[in-house]
Amino acid sequence: MALSSRRRNRRSQDHWPGFVDALAQLLIIIIFVLMVFVLAQFFLGQMLSGREAALERLSRQVAELTDLLAIERDANDEMRLSVAQLTAQLTAANAQVENLEATLRQTAQETARLDQQLTEAQRAGEADRDKVREQLDIIATLQQDIKALEALKADLDRQVQELAGRLEERDQQLAGEQQMSMEARAHAALLEQQLDALRQELARLNAALEASETLSREQEVQIADLGRRLNQALASKVQELQRYRSEFFGRLREILGDRAGIRIEGDRFVFQSEILFGSASATLGLAGEDELGKLAAAIKELSDEIPDDIDWILRVDGHTDLRPIRTAEFQNNWALSAARAITVVQFLVSQGVPPHRLAAAGFGEHQPLVNGTTEEAFARNRRIELKLDQR
Asked: What is the pLDDT of residues 31-70, one digit of tens each?
């Protein structure tokens, strides 16, 4: 009985370990499921927050695109208004061009009339020059005669002084000698006659000298008048050349525009070197060829308009800054400035500009526009100058 009772107790106690194990495994499974649920909730929350941020960014982008679209519409409206204004300006410009063409035709007619007047004035000037040459030859001859007369007068004065001395000596001898021969008295009388003749010749020479001086003064007045007329003719030529220079610079300003690096300094048109050349180089760049092509077209138009009797020339001057240079191609700034001026002249000739109307000169760093060692001063001094001048 006791044995059977212990066996029943042992069997009743063996169920609890299995039940505990089952509960532990179930608890682990529940914990695992809870962890999976928590992680799923976390990642789902992250995904939802990322989608909200993306939606917010998209909303901002849509708002920005809406603003840009509104700005673009405003810009299109402004462009339409600008096109309308430009169309009106173009119409006005065409009208101005027609007026300018009419003015140019009138100017051409006036130029032809002035050329005819200038030709007549030149013919008159040539006749005046011939008269001046003749008068100068006459004056030179008169001056030679005056010098010869002065020399003869000096010689006669010397002879008169000698004769006077001899006469004085003779008078002293006559006073000291009471007995004088008839021959000596005759010789004294002859000397007195010769002295009177010399005095008369001297008076005649003085009269001729005064007449020559009077004629010389009259010739000088005529020469001064002719010189004044020639100066007036030259001044009219200079004024006409200045007018063509002003027209030339005005056309260049219209063609090239108000761009930086191109300006007018006094009677010169100035290109900054950076527009035409690279640093330490005398080779034209593409932009420089474009600008000089416009310049060549303006020069050819001007050469067709300037009368042939005005001997004009376009001088191209090269300048550098004061910083020294020494390369295999250029030994100094003088060589660089001269090479750049020659390059510009050669390009203008290649574009059809007459070579006899061009001249090149290099000045190096010796004629600066501004003094100083700043980059601004260096930039202003590196330049190519164009000057329309008389030969």
From this structure: 999 899 888 888 888 888 777 777 778 778 888 888 888 8
> If you average pLDDT over residues 215-222, what whole number do you get?
72
pLDDT, tens digit (0-9, with 9 covering 90-100), for 95-117: 776 776 776 677 667 766 766 76
In order of 258, 275, 296, 326, 360, the CA distances from 278 in angstroms are 22, 8, 21, 16, 19
**Alpha-carbon span 118 to 363, nearest angstrom:** 36
- State pLDDT tens for residues 69-80: 888 888 777 777
Nearest to 291 by CA among 270, 318, 305: 270
